[in-house]
Fold:
Amino acid sequence: MAPGAGGPSSGAGGAVLRDMVSRELAVLVLAAGKGTRLGGGDDLPPKALLDCLGVPLLEHVRRALEPLGAAHTVVVTGHRAEEVERWLARAWPEARTVRQVPQNGTGHAARLALEALPTFEGDVLVVYGDVPQLRTDDLRALLDAHRASEAAASLLTGVTPEPGLLGRIVRTPQGAFERIAEARDATPAELSIQEFNTGLYVFGAAHLRHGLQGLGSGNVLGEEYLTDAVGAIAATGARVEAVIAPEAGALLGVNDWADLASAVAILRARICTEHMRRGVRVTDPATTVIEVDVEIAPGARILPFTHIGTGCRIAVGARVGPFARLRGGTVLGPGVEIGNFVEVKGSTLGAGAKAKHLAYLGDADVGPRANIGCGVVTANYDGHEKHRTTIGADASIGSGTILVAPVDVGAGARTGANAVVLPKKGVPPGTTVVGVPARALPPKADSGQDAAVTKEQPGEST
Structure:
């Protein structure tokens, strides 16, 4: 819409714009796909629940949509619907679900979803559940353009030299939108078009209902295409806006493993940038993986080839890497150092604790200033259950020590190189143990032998 000369808020044009902006929003999320190009079998989750930096693809979509404050959200499920619906009940309870059986294409899925909103008359945003790179800003830009132009339908497009299997945007000689040509059905001339459809749409509800009526399936896949509904709306003479996104290549769905790797690369770069903008030193973002929902305090340092899982918390002054892995539930206190080839899982390390080389800390609570030597393992799994290890403040765990959980190592205690501390035996505070199984040094010899043990601590921080 072109507002009146007095601006968007003046005259009849301003009134129309205010009415458009205030209309309710419904979101249709199409998540019924099987993901046939992913291969595999039942060992894989449904495509919408594939892991992407610590959470399912669909969770990324949920987070992008949440700030829009939609009045209604409908998620279309299909392949292994029960699993997707169980996840939705936990993570997205306000969304209602509609099953698409059989799965006859995107147009069929959108019609089923819209039937769940029989009286809705606002704007309908249609997205796919396999586009984790979705950003709220992109969706807002599409909504704003749709409403400002009074369009019946709007779609987000991009331009790239090689659109591949993506639908092409066919325009009139005057540059107006005409239709979408699916790559599988396109002519050679249409395939040469560089503008492509990202699959993100906004419709006026009444226009969408009209466009979905009578969709045919006379195409290569024998399915009802949602893109044909856009063409049907345009054929009535109603306005269809094709809005070019500056980074549309980052909005493509996941159809195979290469697509997923591309999506992860985009999201990984965004996440690292966000942490760096907040004062975290990420030495090499290109080789660093930080999953979603990770808290890192300004002043922490992340070195190359480090993987930090969802739910980890890293305090100020901590240093992680290179070649380190922090799994979910790990908490590092101020000044903690995790070095090369160290894996930490479900553990808490107090201020100043160090594990500098080749160690595994699983389900452990490590006290402040404790030193974990090279090759130390907390053996947390007995073949049936996981158990915890506690290491007290200022303890020194010698190189190659195996702590068989459940076990407690007291404050200031020490273990000799290659000691094996058995379950429930523990090491009392201030005690030094050596051997297999570990045993305390005789009290009279403790001071002298303790010095000898100390010299055999190649894992001790220097």
Q: What stands out?
A: Residues 11-251 form a domain with the Spore Coat Polysaccharide Biosynthesis Protein SpsA; Chain A fold (CATH 3.90.550.10). The CA atoms of residues 77 and 299 lie 44 Å apart. The longest strand covers residues 195-204.
